[in-house]
Specification:
Four Helix Bundle (Hemerythrin (Met), subunit A), mainly alpha, 83% helix, 7 helices, elongated, 0% strand
Length: 158
């Protein structure tokens, strides 16, 4: 397994982790369950670590695909530039989740307010990492980059 393979695998963690964590946090706020909030914070921290790994392995992934026929350098550049915004948002989410975790475990009166702030950050972060993933997918998945699919030959249909 090389860094490109790790990049492709790990990029899904911040996307699914941030939205799943957001849903878990919403449920924790609704049910007033501190244990559920803690679970959400742990998902966010894991997502932030995944975002860091994805960003760090991105350069190796770029070097792997940049010379493949059909890969457009501008598409890679858009993905790379947007990935920085996603990384920053997930770092903020991870750090605030650590704060939320500490406040929740100490049973602070700021627990609920902090949870709402973290929820907003998670939704923004999800939007940014989902967009980054979409832009990354356009690098090699032509079916999403131009909206067209290649029709199968009659012999391939059988």
């Amino acid at each position: 397994m090389n860094q490109t393979h790790i990049h492709i695998i790990i990029t899904h963690l911040p996307i699914f982790g941030s939205i799943l964590g957001g849903l878990v946090l919403m449920y924790g706020l609704w049910s007033k369950s501190n244990d559920t909030k803690v679970a959400a914070y742990l998902l966010f921290i894991l997502s932030a670590l995944g975002a860091g790994i994805a960003y760090l392995t991105g350069e190796a992934a770029e070097e792997t695909v940049e010379n493949i026929q059909g890969v457009v350098e501008a598409t890679i550049k858009r993905h790379e530039e947007f990935a920085l915004f996603a990384l920053i948002s997930l770092i903020i989410l991870g750090v605030t989740s650590i704060l939320g975790l500490v406040l929740t475990l100490k049973k602070s009166r700021l627990t609920r307010t902090t949870a709402f702030v973290i929820l907003v950050i998670s939704l923004i972060g999800f939007g940014l990492v989902a967009r980054t993933g979409y832009l990354g997918g356009q690098i090699r998945h032509t079916e999403i980059s131009n909206g067209a699919t290649v029709p199968m030959e009659d012999s391939e249909k059988e």
